[in-house]
Specification:
The protein is mainly β and 185 residues long. It has helices spanning 3-6, 25-28, 149-152; strands at 15-21, 39-43, 47-51, 59-60, 71-77, 84-90, 97-99, 102-104, 109-111, 115-120, 123-130, 137-144. The chain starts with a helix and ends in a 33-residue tail after the last helix. One of its GO terms (cellular component) is cytoplasm.
């Protein structure tokens, strides 16, 4: 056997891509402590905390309007599943956090969708999960946006799908609005 054949099987790593935006980022440099463009490993049993207190948070936002600990992300595996997920928890008593328009008060938490926009104050963060297999750690990959992520990469609104499986919105032109119809028509 060759050393190639005896080598450990490589496993993929879950990576959380986060694109940050603030309208005053060039003037106030609130992101100067974040490592953009470089992947960082976080142990699976640690919480990734974001805020302004460098003694508690690994991801520091240099802004007095940000809470000492703004929010935390916990990596976990779903029960009876091989799927890995993130949970986001608002740790700010003063500022509400929204995840795709779902508002989280202090100590509220939800599962992070595979692609979402996190907002608090004037901050906008596009979060995208790249799935992996590793149980020991995950990676973060931070990016800086030049334009608001809400405008640049707005998420499509979720629309209910009718029972027949065909969405009526694809038949509507931009000029027309929906009209009510009798089911016998």
């Amino acid at each position: 056997m060759t050393s190639f054949e005896e080598a450990e099987t490589e496993e993929t790593v879950t990576c959380l891509h986060m694109t940050f935006y603030h309208p005053c980022q060039e003037k106030k440099m609130m992101f100067r402590c974040l490592n953009f463009g470089k992947r960082e490993q976080v142990r699976a049993d640690e919480m990734a905390k974001f805020g302004r207190d460098s003694n508690i948070c690994h991801y520091n936002l240099m802004d007095t309007r940000v809470s000492r600990v703004q929010f935390a992300l916990q990596f976990y595996r779903k029960l009876n599943s091989s799927e890995y997920c993130f949970e986001i928890k608002n740790l700010s008593k003063r500022t509400k956090l929204t995840v795709n328009q779902t508002e989280l008060g202090y100590l509220n938490k939800i599962d992070l969708p595979w692609k979402c926009i996190i907002c608090f104050g004037d901050y906008q963060i596009l979060a995208e999960i790249q799935e992996g297999e590793s149980m020991d750690y995950f990676e973060t990959h931070l990016h800086l946006a030049e334009a608001p992520v809400l405008q640049e990469r707005s998420l499509p609104p979720l629309q209910p799908v009718p029972e027949n499986g065909i969405s009526s919105s694809i038949f509507l032109s931009e000029d027309k609005s929906p009209t009510e119809m009798d089911e016998n028509e």
